[in-house]
């Protein structure tokens, strides 16, 4: 393409749901606002309760706190701008704002992939080596595992975002999405992006497949260990300790795979928007609900924390 067709953009326009009637957009605003608030409150509550209750000062809940923090971070990066767009029809986002949104969406997404694998390893050690669990999963080891889970997000987000935004863009600045994701922004580039696309595909496969294989390996060994337990009660107790995590992993990877690994012919921009909503907005809300309602220890901790707060308030009055 001739250099005269290149342009230096100062802002982008997020098309998101602009094709829908105003009434539908207002309805979506209310729905997404409720989901957003439930996500923030649910995950914040998990963080506070697991910090406040001594009974939850274990590796499993240390990892859960980090997962809740990542879910909050991903929502804060994407949802507020989407809500403002739906309510005020302000669809513009600055060049720097778009790059920042893309960077942190990559960072939190990649970190979550590896953290879910770390949580699977934690369940594997707890079920397959219960006597050695306190030694193997001490505070220092857990801190290292969390750091190792967060770290891949930095190079992936830095390389992919800086590389993409170093390309020249065409005259159009309309991003056909509700946030600055890589594929819709890449369509605006006026340059040969073959090398970048190869890097993006290989990077996405590695980021998704490496944690996925670690999770499958952990749960294969967990299943084998559970089948060796003689009593049905023992099997149920062992499975219940990892059922919440298994459900969260399934929701995350199914929605992520449907979004990024479907063929272009079967994955229209509108379908991709709906699928992106599932892993960026709906799944973080469901995660907090799953870990709150399906986990007896968290429910009991919530009850204890509530009664302590109520008793303290009564004493003050």
Any overview of this molecule?
The chain is mainly α and 317 residues long. The chain is built from eleven helices and three strands. Strands 2-1-3 form a three-stranded mixed sheet. InterPro entries: GPCR_Rhodpsn, GPCR_Rhodpsn_7TM, Olfact_rcpt. Keywords: Cell membrane, G-protein coupled receptor, Membrane, Olfaction, Receptor, Sensory transduction, Transducer, Transmembrane, Transmembrane helix.
Structure summarized in a few sentences:
The protein has 317 residues and is an all-alpha fold.
* Amount of beta strand: under 5%
Order of helices and strands: EHHEHHHHEHHHHH
Structural class: mainly alpha
Q: What is the β-strand count?
A: 3
Could you list the spans in which at least 5 consecutive residues all have pLDDT below 50?
none
